[in-house]
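WARN retry 2 of 3 for item q-0093 after timeout on previous attempt; input resubmitted unchanged.
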Amino acid sequence: MYTGSCLCRGIQFELDAELAPIDICHCEQCRKAQGGPFAANAPVAASALRILQGAELLTAYESSPGKHRVFCSRCGSPIYSRRTARPDLVRIRVGVINEPLNVRPHAHYYTASKSNWWEITDALPRIADE
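OK item q-0093 returned
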């Protein structure tokens, strides 16, 4: 089990499942949503996510048709994203998890649109567009 929170700790949650390997996404939307060179996301079953505190602070933004980015309305921390077409799955932003993770990144996605100031230096697979 994992626990997590937003920056202001108004939203507290737990995950009662192991995460899938971490996706590193370099697309423009993820870069803008995170304010950095990429987003680090791990898919997990939506049923494994339990909001313990602060459900009223969760706000969703539909960044593209059917894709909702869920964040704290108080501090702005991104928590997860979900797709209308996959209601059984959420993609947790792994930076908000409190404990050490048992999974590691497995690939870089949308590397064709990555920041020109960020160099990928690991040997993980790079997918230009996905």
